[in-house]
Amino acid sequence: MRLGVLLMAVTVLSCTQLPDSTDGPHSLSELKARGDNYISTNAREYTLSGIAHGELSAEFADVEGPVREEMIERAVNARIAHVTRAIKRYVDGKLRDANGGSAKEDDVYFTYIRRADSTMTTNATVVADNRVEFRFEVDLVGSVYLMHTIAPGAGSSRSFDVSVSDWSGANPEQVTVQIAGSPAKDAFPRYDLLFEDGVLDMGIHFGGDYNEERFDLETAKWLVEVLIEDGWENDGVATFADLKIDSGPFVRRVQVEGREVSVEIHISHSDMVLEADEEKLTEVVKESFATRDIVMYSGHAGENAGFILDYQPRHEIKARDFAALTMAEKYQVFILDGCRTYRTYVQALMANPYKSYENVDIVTTVNTTPFSAGFQLLHEFVYWLTLTNDKGAHFPLSWKTILRGVNTRTWKNVHYGVHGTGSNPQLNPYSGSDALCNPCTEDTDCKAGGNLCLGYPGGGACGVACTNDQACGAGYRCARLVDDPKLFYLPKQCIRRDYACP
User: Fold this and answer.
1) Whose CB among 262, 319, 367, 497 lies 3.0–4.6 Å from 105's, allowing a Cys bridge?
2) Are 145 and 9 a contacting pair, CB within 8 Å?
């Protein structure tokens, strides 16, 4: 589901260049020390784990082989349901207390389980008294302060106790649960791969809408008008009414490492075809899955939902069918803008044999997404992913920087995050990492876009865009240059720890 709410006033930024000129050298005088797969700026994944026990039937001692294994599995599955229920009851109680008695999606403290099968069990062993002992892990996403709220203390791993029993109250057990936050190192999208063939192509697909106001069409129309206003070229589309199922893409050009490449945006929405031709909507989405660098879906979503392309009548590519679709073996980015896409879509996409976390990043939402968010956020993702400096060179932003541009206070309860970044580069993905400390007078002297000319005491010298100290290497640290929240998009830079280039 998605909430049908009125479009809120938004500030539209140009898609052509950075909001402020960044010629360098950039001052180092005010620097301050700062100290998985899933990255977000207002949410975090957690793993809750422990040891629990299930009861085996009296007949267990008289069986062997596959029957014995089946009885063990049945006992574990029955018990884990009660363990998960006890954990949820405990966590919900703690969060309700922290929220002053409230338990709403937009509360400061929240949790959401990724999917129905997010609990895993391992190491099942038969112990005394016809019981089976097993280790469990429950994955969930929650607020960045979750661990301190439900298990106060210090350290990266903390614990709490829950009382577990069967539905009837039988077989009570005290279970200790450890909670640990998943590592979430920032990383860059693989811009080098996205632009490798000279074209960054996006497929933006609007799902249908059952609301009378038809927010799907309003959102699609708004996006087309913004692209036209911002100078994207499309010879066959001068207005939204001109956009057809077979229209060509909106195009603009950017510089990437000294060469001109094209950014192309293909758009589809439900009213492009007649009822008898709705299979054409499926065809254009399948084309995006199979060929596009970036695939964006904006529409109704929810547990077990897929791409709901129309409601008059309902026409859908079901999530369970994602596994059988032809997908590009190249690196792709999926941006899934709908209610709770975190829960079903990642698992469904990763079931496809063409996809692994080596060649895909997936952006999802945790909670209910209002339609008014879709207007702005689709444009924001297009804007930040195609950002250029004032010389027209593409400006690579890390995933956390991009998410800071969409996880704003206005949409603080949506919680956008990205999955699959564990193998992504943590240093500028363009071939400019060897520019460190090269003499410079402006940013363009530092090879790749995103590298900035820094004002060292001995004169201008190049930094390199980075996400953490380890990526920079010995003698350097990864530092944010300014604390001004309006300049959050300026990438952190590798700088010399002693402020003196060799």
Assistant:
1) 367
2) no
